[in-house]
Amino acid sequence: MVRLGAKEVRKFCLYVRGTQDKANESVQNIAAMLEGRHIEAYYPDLASRKLGKYGNSKGWRVDTLRCANGFSVVALGLDAAVRGIKIEEFRPDLIILDDIDSSTDGPEAVKKKIDILTKSILPAGSNDVAILGIQNLIHPNSIFSKINDGSAEFLYNRLVSGPYPAVEGLTYEQRPEGGYLITGGVATWAGQSLEVCEAQINEWGLTAFLQEAQHEVEDRPGGLFSHLEYRHCGWGEVPELTRIVVWVDPAVTSTDQSDSMGIQADGIDEKGTIYRLWSWESVTTPVDALRRAILKALELHALMVGVETDQGGDTWHSVYKQACEELIKDEAYPQIVAHTRFPGFQSAKAGAGHGPKAHRASLMLSDYERGKIVHVQGTHRVLEKALFRFPLTKPFDLVDAAYWSWQDLRGKGQMVPPPVEATKADKARWDAGTSATRDLTGSRWRR
Length: 447
What we know:
The protein has helices at about 1-5, 20-35, 35-40, 45, 105-120, 145-150, 195-205, 205-210, 285-300, 315-330, 355-370, 380-390, 395-410, 425-430, and strands at about 10-15, 65, 70-75, 95-100, 130-135, 165-175, 180-185, 230-235, 240-250, 260-270, 275-280, 305-310, 345-350, 375, 435-440, 445. It is of the alpha/beta class and about 450 residues long. It has three domains: about 1-150, no CATH class; about 165-210, no CATH class; about 230-445, Nucleotidyltransferase, domain 5 (2-Layer Sandwich).
């Protein structure tokens, strides 16, 4: 806005915020910029106050700035909006709507604000008025949410940019000691790195961060699993598991238009209770998805990695072998060596009598309702969000991966013999980063 005033592209800016106090605060921030030495050096008329005939200031107050070059700024809060805003003969030719939504706005408050905007503020503009809106999405029925989703019945010719999340492809998990760890994603600007975002999650709380920084404000009705109260436990409460598997529901490409990859790791105890150990969902390459699944399978001492192969068919076995070969060569994993015997590969096809997605998920639902599935704290929120939106909102991939893992552990799919348990010493070697690996051909562990 200061640049527009310097270039004399616009003459009169009306700066609108939710309240008059906040609008005044913004105008005072603008005043501080105009009074800076660089503006004074290069645009002296913009930095100087407009004076009357007898040298009196024509306006440099808490809510009004009038510059010697004719540029003016007036603060206006939605709680004090009036009709017919003018300075001398000029109407605003620039209106900035900044942070006008509030998280506490109910339907009546939103309606009132829209009435003020459409009946008082927007009509006050000049014939060539430019309108700029700046706002995080606060909640699903806010003014800017309506502007973003196309339901706002004003500003029809708008150009919407964003919303831009702080982290593209954010993945996270809960630490056993509390708080959250960001495990993946790309920060969208340098001033808010992944380290800063992780600190914000742990300072603000996860829900607040997802709403404020990630713009996750959707309030659609829940789906098939939305009525559930999930059972939870910590890692220290997980009993001895008799079988652990990792399943992948894949996509065949990794463009912005691709489906996500879903990975679910589960185990079952001797009483038949399934423990959901780890969940992951994001857009990535097929090889990267298999690498992640294999690494998690090795970490958890899983018997096998399964892939739903409706897309790609037998190609996935080759992708699995490629991922194993890459891990052997990757110096980041010294515990994986040439003689490592990786978890076995297994495939399943949804088209082979399993029915559509909703039918498959409904079979798994019965176990949830009987309390036979427990979510281990860590990545449980990722899975629970996916279950909540299913089958109303994509992506569905993690729910599909969870189904394949469930049906495998329940013995409803192709099965391979259960593993011979590794000794605690062998498992400790793996956890310590040495090459303790399982030989699946003989169901034994070896160094």
